[in-house]
Amino acid sequence: MTTTATPSIDQLRELAPGTPPFSYLPQTWAWLLLGLVLLTVVLVGVTVRWRHWARERYRREALQRLDRLARVEGNERLAALRELPALLKRVALSMPDAPPVASLAGAQWQAFLQQRAGHRLPAGFVHTLQMIAYAPDAHLLALDVQQVAVLFSTSRRWIEEHHVAV
Q: How far is CA 15 from the centre of its chain?
């Protein structure tokens, strides 16, 4: 009588991986060309997007500053209001096409802002900006909350939507 040993799990061996039945390399030059074209398209897209993002830096910084000015309350509110016209002028001076706006005032400044705006600005917008830049403190403190809110929202919309010639 023969006794057969029962197989043990210890006797199992791991199989060596076989070679794949196909090559991972492209089989024709067309696949290589397609890969290079796709890589080029992606690189060009990333470059264009990065340049646009870098060109819009002045706009992002101006919006951050405008948000800080709009949140100011109390005694510093007067200084925040006085800074608003200068902020809009700095935004105009920072545009990539560098328009000559440093000397613009009054109707010319209103015309420039309206020309670059993507929407209709209020008729007395520049007059209000001049008033908050040069009026006595008592006159500014007399402004109601609604007027200040409209001024900040109009300024925000202009900064966000103004057209830049490329």
A: 56
